[in-house]
């Protein structure tokens, strides 16, 4: 069977990248930060990026806002466009991971089905789902970009948590309660998980 069952091309084969790992001395992974807007994904992604680089790891950040300006600029916020957005991010993450990077994705990724799809594209063994958790009231108070204000005023439609659903992750690899944890403690929790699982596979 083709490695890419959805593709019209039937003779595609996955690139074996195990030799890359040896070169970088650690197992690559995709650390997928999911959570509602202003939960802290970008803030934690930046701090995690710095911490991983201090460990000598090669990293890349894929931020939801920046892909929407480029790779996914043709997509809106309907359910099917959000799913396509996530599929593209997952495919690009996989390519970067295959190049040996630790990839940090900061993307609301509200539907559990599409996160599951991303996991299947990246591979269960490499996918680290991190729920960046803040209650809606708290995120709405933080509102660093003023987006909740706009959504409440009806200026943004399909806004996650207001008029679009967020499926709370049931079994994320890491759960971060951002009301209880500082940014540094959240980074530590992710690094702990990655460190303990570096020998998987
Ligand atoms: P997102 O990327 O999820 O939309 P951002 O990282 O852009 O969220 O914004 C989260 C805001 O919440 C930032 O202004 C950040 O400083 C603030 N914040 C307060 N406490 C925390 C915490 N414990 N963890 C992460 N962010 C926090």
UniProtKB/TrEMBL annotation:
SUPFAM superfamilies to which the protein is assigned, alphabetical: P-loop containing nucleoside triphosphate hydrolases (SSF52540)
Span of domain APS kinase: 28-176
Active-site residues, Swiss-Prot/TrEMBL: 109
Name of one Pfam family that matches: APS_kinase
InterPro entries: APS (IPR002891), APS_kinase_dom (IPR059117), P-loop_NTPase (IPR027417), Sulf_AdTrans/APS_kinase (IPR050512)
Annotated catalysed reactions: adenosine 5'-phosphosulfate + ATP = 3'-phosphoadenylyl sulfate + ADP + H(+)
Binding site residues for ATP: 35-42
Domain of life: Bacteria
GO CC terms in record: cytoplasm
GO biological process: hydrogen sulfide biosynthetic process; sulfate assimilation via adenylyl sulfate reduction; sulfate assimilation, phosphoadenylyl sulfate reduction by phosphoadenylyl-sulfate reductase (thioredoxin)
Pathway recorded for this protein: Sulfur metabolism; hydrogen sulfide biosynthesis; sulfite from sulfate: step 2/3
Keyword annotations of the record: ATP-binding, Kinase, Nucleotide-binding, Phosphoprotein, Transferase
Coiled coil: none
GO molecular function: adenylylsulfate kinase activity; ATP binding; sulfate adenylyltransferase (ATP) activity
The EC number(s) this enzyme carries: 2.7.1.25
HAMAP family, per database record: Adenylyl_sulf_kinase (MF_00065)
NCBIfam families for this protein: apsK, PRK03846.1
Family that this chain belongs to: Belongs to the APS kinase family.
Described function: Catalyzes the synthesis of activated sulfate.
PANTHER family membership: SULFATE ADENYLYLTRANSFERASE
Protein name: Adenylyl-sulfate kinase
Organismal lineage: Bacteria, Pseudomonadati, Pseudomonadota, Gammaproteobacteria, Pseudomonadales
């Amino acid at each position: 069977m083709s490695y890419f069952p959805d593709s019209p091309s039937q003779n595609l084969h996955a690139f074996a990248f195990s030799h890359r790992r040896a070169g970088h001395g650690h197992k690559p992974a995709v650390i997928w930060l999911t959570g509602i807007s202003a939960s802290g994904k970008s803030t934690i992604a930046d701090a995690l990026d710095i911490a991983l680089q201090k460990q000598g790891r090669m990293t890349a950040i894929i931020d939801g806002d920046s892909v929407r300006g480029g790779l996914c600029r043709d997509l809106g916020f309907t359910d099917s466009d959000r799913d396509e957005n996530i599929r593209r991010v997952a495919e690009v993450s996989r390519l970067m991971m295959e190049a040996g990077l630790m990839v940090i994705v900061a993307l609301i990724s509200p539907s559990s089905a599409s996160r599951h799809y991303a996991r299947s594209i990246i591979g269960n063994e490499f996918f680290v789902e991190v729920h960046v958790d803040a209650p809606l009231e708290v995120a709405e108070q933080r509102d660093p970009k003023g987006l909740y204000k706009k959504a409440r005023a009806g200026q943004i439609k399909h806004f996650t948590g207001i008029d679009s659903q967020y499926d709370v992750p049931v079994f994320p690899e890491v759960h971060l309660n951002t009301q209880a944890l500082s940014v540094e403690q959240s980074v530590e929790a992710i690094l702990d998980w990655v460190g303990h699982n570096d020998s998987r596979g």
